[in-house]
């Protein structure tokens, strides 16, 4: 599992860099939303369909199918042709290459603000891991494991809908990425805050369904802002450094959220998480929008 996670960690930064390389700036929001919609659709279907396959075919055959699909995916990647923008070989040493992404994150004002928001949001993001959501369903909603599945399914359905919404709004978002990202973060935080108070399972389901579009608007706007910040080679380093920071935060968060859930209760954990998410949105609004530090991320014209 460790080896699988290690190599899986390569995928997201490189995928985003490939999109940056092959999609023009004007179509980038649309491309990101389309890819995300496909991802979320298969995640939504996969949870149910995967269980059906295991029950009918057994785990060995299901793993064989998964292995075949991975090979098919790798084969499809060879079809993608990325035009090299530069033939110049880097003469930096190993240490310089390893730390390049971290330096860019620290030097660029806009990226630095987004990463701080990311860390705040990643810290509370573990409230959606299985153990915490199951505790919420049982203690706050008074329901069993079936409703745990409904909650997860509603969220993925919401992210599918959110991806299509962003696809339709892509032209409107060009040049307004900062404010859309902040709006998505704020709505996600507000919905999480309200979610902590509810006892009606149907209302909880509706709130989770609405969280999906909110998160997608925030996430896809942010993804495009990162892609606008640098060329594809530099972007891979930036996203890799960001990913490492987020994963470290999540490791610490899993322990902290688990302890807090035991001490103060699952409701209060969701309420406090909503407050922190809204604080993150307010922090981004002040720095990215009011102080204009996000302007350089709205287009490629000011890339690093």
Automatic annotation (TrEMBL):
Q: Name one GO molecular function term.
A: transmembrane transporter activity
Check the record and name the CDD domains matching this protein: MFS_MefA_like
User: What sections of the protein cross the membrane?
Assistant: 63-80, 113-135, 147-167, 174-195, 239-261, 267-290
InterPro entries hit by this protein: MFS, MFS_trans_sf
Localization (cell): Cell membrane
Name one cellular component (GO) term: plasma membrane
Which membrane topology term applies here? Multi-pass membrane protein
UniProt cross-references to Pfam families, sorted A to Z: MFS_1 (PF07690)
Q: Which key words tag this protein in UniProt?
A: Cell membrane, Membrane, Transmembrane, Transmembrane helix
Name this polypeptide is given: MFS family permease
Organism whose genome encodes this protein: [Anoxybacillus] calidus
């Amino acid at each position: 599992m460790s080896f699988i996670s290690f190599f899986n960690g390569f995928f997201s930064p490189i995928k985003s860099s490939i999109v940056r390389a092959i999609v023009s700036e004007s179509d980038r929001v649309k491309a990101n939303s389309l890819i995300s919609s496909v991802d979320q659709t298969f995640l939504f279907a996969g949870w149910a369909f995967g269980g059906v396959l295991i029950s009918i075919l057994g785990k060995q055959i299901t793993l064989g199918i998964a292995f075949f699909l991975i090979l098919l995916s790798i084969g499809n990647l060879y079809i993608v042709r990325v035009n090299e923008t530069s033939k110049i070989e880097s003469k930096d040493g190993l240490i310089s290459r390893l730390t390049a992404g971290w330096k860019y994150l620290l030097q660029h004002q806009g990226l630095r603000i987004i990463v701080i928001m990311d860390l705040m949001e990643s810290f509370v993001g573990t409230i959606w891991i299985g153990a915490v959501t199951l505790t919420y369903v049982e203690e706050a909603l008074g329901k069993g494991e079936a409703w745990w599945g409904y909650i997860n399914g509603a969220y993925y359905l919401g992210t599918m809908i959110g991806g299509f919404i962003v696809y339709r709004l892509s032209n409107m978002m060009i040049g307004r990425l900062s404010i859309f990202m902040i709006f998505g973060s704020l709505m996600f935080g507000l919905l999480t805050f309200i979610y902590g108070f509810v006892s009606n399972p149907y209302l909880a389901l509706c709130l989770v369904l609405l969280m999906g579009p909110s998160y997608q608007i925030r996430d896809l706007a942010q993804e495009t802002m990162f892609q606008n910040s640098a060329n594809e080679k530099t972007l891979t380093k930036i996203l890799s450094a960001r990913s490492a920071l987020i994963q470290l935060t999540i490791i610490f968060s899993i322990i902290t959220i688990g302890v807090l859930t035991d001490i103060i209760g699952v409701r209060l954990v969701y309420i406090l998480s909503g407050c922190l998410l809204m604080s993150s949105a307010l922090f981004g609004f002040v720095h990215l929008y009011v102080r204009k530090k996000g302007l350089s991320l709205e287009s490629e014209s000011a890339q690093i």
